[in-house]
Amino acid sequence: MFRQVNRLVFQAVLIGGLGLLLQAAQAPVEMVKVPAGVFTPQFSPRPGQKDFQVKSFWLDARPVNRAEFLEFVRKYPQWRRSQVPPLFQEGNYLADWQGDLSLPLPSQEVKQPELQAVTGVSWMAARAYCDAQKKRLPKLLEWEYAADETDPEKLSWYSLVGIGIPVQAGVAAPNQKGIYDLHHMYEWVDDFNQVIMTNDSREGAEKDNQLFCGNSGSATDRMNYAAFTRYAFWSSLHPSYTLKNLGFRCARDL
Amino acid sequence: MKKIFLLGLVCLLTAMPALAEDHSHHHPTSLQGEKPTGKSLYWLGGQWKTHQNQKLELKSLKGKPVVLAMLYTSCKAVCPLILEDVKAIEKGLASADRAKTQFVIVSFDPERDTPSVLADYAQKHGIRASNWKFLHGTSKHVSELGALLGVRFQPNAQGDFIHSNQITLLNVEGEVAYQRPDLKEPLTIILEKLKANLPVSHPHQH
Amino acid sequence: MRKHIHSKIFGSLLLTTALGTGLLGIPNTAQAQETSYQLANAALANLPVENAILTTPPMVPPAIKRKTPAKVIVELEVQEFIGNLADGVQYNFWSFGGSVPGKFIRVREGDRVEFHLKNHPDNKSPHNIDLHAVTGPGGGAKATMTAPGHETQFTFQALNPGLYIYHCAAPPVPMHIANGMYGLILVEPKEGLKPVDKEYYVVQGDFYTKGNFGEPGLQPFDMQRGIDEHPSYVLFNGSVGSMVGEKAITAKKGETVRLFVGNGGPNLISSFHVIGEIFDLVYTEGGSLANKNVQTTLVPAGGSAIVEFKVDVPGNFILVDHSIFRTFNKGTLGILNVSGDAQADVFTGQQSDKVYQAQPMHKPVATTPATPPDQKLMETGKNLFVANCSACHQTDGAGMPGVFPPLAKSDYLMADKARSIGIALKGHSGQLLVNGKTYDGVMPAMTHLNDDQLASILTYIRNSWGNKGDAVTPAEVKAVRAQQK
């Protein structure tokens, strides 16, 4: 008798808990309309051109959190940790989760792990997620434009040692464009692998041709070490990489 | 034999629910036979079209090695050299082995390189053999293929592309067996790898 | 042309060499390249394999005993950590192997080094490595751009012997280096290095923190300081006191000591000196040229030097950068402690200290009232006048009627001192009224004469041939000169 009650209670709690989780995930992510503008990126994707017109676009106000990603893998089992082939994730995909459908446990430092930004996801998985929301990953130029920051105080994350726990999405103060949680982790962009091309395609775009030795001749702002670091970081990635520090947010055309 | 059939059936059935509500094109649209190996490129889905205007799924390439390059037809300088190198690789094979290899050229300019444009291009370069395929895909799948292979292409203001010049060898499973990084490396290296990856017997038909 | 080369490659595979080259008339380079690639592979296959012994500074791996090349496997892990720059001062260090400088790598000329670079998954930044011992693009930097949680590999042949810096070259490069990403790789010459008793590893580096030297707490990196080349710390082996007290490097009297000295920079050049010692041998810049009897040797940023000396006398011998403010105010100090008995025939130490009686040093200086122009000044002025002015104004100051005005008893000259100085400086053209007569000529500017010289000339002319004036001082000339600018 008690066992049955216990089981019922347990199931009720479980359902209730899941319901709460789904609530957190289901509230649609607020998107910010990033206004059109002209932007000078740290490294130009087009030799000879320094300034670029960025069209207005929608950007998630905060990175995708674990609860949302859980809902996604629940709906699309091929994206569960045990199902994704090595081609799409090189290992450590959602490594901090307890299982295909169970998040990390709460801890002293992290009371609500479901509200932390999801990390350890590959580009393929991030793309699939944004697709499923009828969105897309932001382009590199869009991301850099929306996240543009030169105040060294706000960029200290890049030079501080130790990764820090994944950011609780949507909590830290937003930037002037109303975007949260920038510069507390790395984020995927749609065209990350187009970073830094050589001028001469005959050379074969050797990965670091412009990057290596900093090629500060072509960098826009030599003081902005955070921008250097981000470009170097993106250039070192492969679509299957899953890193502790690397999450994402989605964008949408107007 | 029965086991394989059953396995295939099970795979198909498990794939069904995913198929039903899937908006992402990121998994094979149907799983007949075995699943691709973990690192096979054939996990990549998408509706591709050949220069002969036939629909193609990448996984249909399984069973024979593939020499793959990405280019665009309006390219004046470097792409013809890439194409010549791929032709040279074919010529480096014994004639019996040529039929056992597939040569796949993917355009990263799908807007302009429609299947008929690709057909003209193939003809202009004297390519008629059935083991050659020039592929047109959606920009989403083309960018994924490029990203997975590390092939970089970036349009410039004039509508030309700056791009890298790899030639990739896929083995019979569709896994990357070797990548020639640029136009400078001698072709002998990728050719040797290709020879080592030729199927030993006739590949079974799909 | 390319088509031919390609068919040439396949031609030589399938046909005889003679037929291939003869038929197409192409030189053998493509074939030679292919053959050497195969040969290289074959040679590599037969080399014995060993794992490199890597050491933390100031220790150095043991000398290489083998006389033939080997394939040496080096595994180096990048670690980002918070460490002490000085007591109470912490810094975000980026390192090769958990120390600044990073691990010491020792290989032999001709070795094939299979290099594995690992970037710990907890690190923030991508990293790579440029070893100056590598002949190849980027010194390895291109081949080793590594994301956190990944490992890259490349192989190089150590073609040249010498002591080489290695450092990270990920952007922004100066910041990666400034944070401590450097170390040394020694490629021993084929014949090996002469055996010595002690070998040590010392690398100087400049550090750029927001706070000044000694300011406590976790100090962030300061990019502007780095650009301005204004370090707050200049250190041996990454921290103040890294080789002091218990951590001093040691030797016994009579031993030979070899220091492998590097300079990671990022900016400063070092004037490396050991107080109380002379370098018997210096392999300048870590190369093959040996200089002897050197007191202070330059170590370029991104460079090295090997110094060898015999310690003949016991005591503490201080390693410094002789750009000496750095040693005393920014921490560039290390100690070599030599134990043993006194060696009086080389150095006695202080032998006596007694009172010294001497003559008063400073004679009182008599202050004199302002005097009329003294003989010396007049003489100098006269000589200069004759040389520079008498051609026009004549030695008796009479000038030339209508053209060059007289200086003797000249009302124009004596009326306005500053004006006269001005003319001497700038010259003059156009009409002048002197002593009631008009003169119209051109006087060139005396630009070749300095303030002292002009002062003496003007003093002379204002006190000769009946002119009675006072001296003109160099300061007065300078003032007018300044006004004219």
TrEMBL record, chain A:
<dbReference type="GO" id="GO:0120147">
    <property type="term" value="F:formylglycine-generating oxidase activity"/>
</dbReference>
<feature type="domain" description="Sulfatase-modifying factor enzyme-like">
    <location>
        <begin position="30"/>
        <end position="149"/>
    </location>
</feature>
<protein>
    <recommendedName>
        <fullName>Sulfatase-modifying factor enzyme-like domain-containing protein</fullName>
    </recommendedName>
</protein>
<feature type="signal peptide">
    <location>
        <begin position="1"/>
        <end position="27"/>
    </location>
</feature>
<dbReference type="InterPro" id="IPR005532">
    <property type="entry name" value="SUMF_dom"/>
</dbReference>
<keyword id="KW-0732">Signal</keyword>
<dbReference type="Pfam" id="PF03781">
    <property type="entry name" value="FGE-sulfatase"/>
</dbReference>
<dbReference type="InterPro" id="IPR016187">
    <property type="entry name" value="CTDL_fold"/>
</dbReference>
<dbReference type="InterPro" id="IPR051043">
    <property type="entry name" value="Sulfatase_Mod_Factor_Kinase"/>
</dbReference>
<dbReference type="InterPro" id="IPR042095">
    <property type="entry name" value="SUMF_sf"/>
</dbReference>
From TrEMBL, chain B:
<comment type="similarity">
    <text>Belongs to the SCO1/2 family.</text>
</comment>
<feature type="binding site">
    <location>
        <position position="79"/>
    </location>
    <ligand>
        <name>Cu cation</name>
    </ligand>
</feature>
<keyword id="KW-0479">Metal-binding</keyword>
<feature type="binding site">
    <location>
        <position position="75"/>
    </location>
    <ligand>
        <name>Cu cation</name>
    </ligand>
</feature>
<dbReference type="InterPro" id="IPR003782">
    <property type="entry name" value="SCO1/SenC"/>
</dbReference>
<feature type="disulfide bond" description="Redox-active">
    <location>
        <begin position="75"/>
        <end position="79"/>
    </location>
</feature>
<dbReference type="Pfam" id="PF02630">
    <property type="entry name" value="SCO1-SenC"/>
</dbReference>
<keyword id="KW-0186">Copper</keyword>
<feature type="binding site">
    <location>
        <position position="163"/>
    </location>
    <ligand>
        <name>Cu cation</name>
    </ligand>
</feature>
<dbReference type="InterPro" id="IPR036249">
    <property type="entry name" value="Thioredoxin-like_sf"/>
</dbReference>
<keyword id="KW-1015">Disulfide bond</keyword>
<protein>
    <recommendedName>
        <fullName>SCO family protein</fullName>
    </recommendedName>
</protein>
<feature type="signal peptide">
    <location>
        <begin position="1"/>
        <end position="20"/>
    </location>
</feature>
<dbReference type="GO" id="GO:0046872">
    <property type="term" value="F:metal ion binding"/>
</dbReference>
<keyword id="KW-0732">Signal</keyword>
TrEMBL record, chain C:
<dbReference type="Pfam" id="PF00034">
    <property type="entry name" value="Cytochrom_C"/>
</dbReference>
<feature type="binding site" description="type 1 copper site">
    <location>
        <position position="168"/>
    </location>
    <ligand>
        <name>Cu cation</name>
    </ligand>
</feature>
<dbReference type="InterPro" id="IPR011706">
    <property type="entry name" value="Cu-oxidase_C"/>
</dbReference>
<feature type="domain" description="Cytochrome c">
    <location>
        <begin position="376"/>
        <end position="465"/>
    </location>
</feature>
<dbReference type="Pfam" id="PF07731">
    <property type="entry name" value="Cu-oxidase_2"/>
</dbReference>
<keyword id="KW-0677">Repeat</keyword>
<feature type="binding site" description="type 1 copper site">
    <location>
        <position position="132"/>
    </location>
    <ligand>
        <name>Cu cation</name>
    </ligand>
</feature>
<feature type="binding site" description="type 1 copper site">
    <location>
        <position position="181"/>
    </location>
    <ligand>
        <name>Cu cation</name>
    </ligand>
</feature>
<dbReference type="GO" id="GO:0005507">
    <property type="term" value="F:copper ion binding"/>
</dbReference>
<keyword id="KW-0349">Heme</keyword>
<feature type="signal peptide">
    <location>
        <begin position="1"/>
        <end position="32"/>
    </location>
</feature>
<feature type="binding site" description="type 1 copper site">
    <location>
        <position position="322"/>
    </location>
    <ligand>
        <name>Cu cation</name>
    </ligand>
</feature>
<dbReference type="GO" id="GO:0020037">
    <property type="term" value="F:heme binding"/>
</dbReference>
<feature type="binding site" description="type 1 copper site">
    <location>
        <position position="127"/>
    </location>
    <ligand>
        <name>Cu cation</name>
    </ligand>
</feature>
<dbReference type="InterPro" id="IPR008972">
    <property type="entry name" value="Cupredoxin"/>
</dbReference>
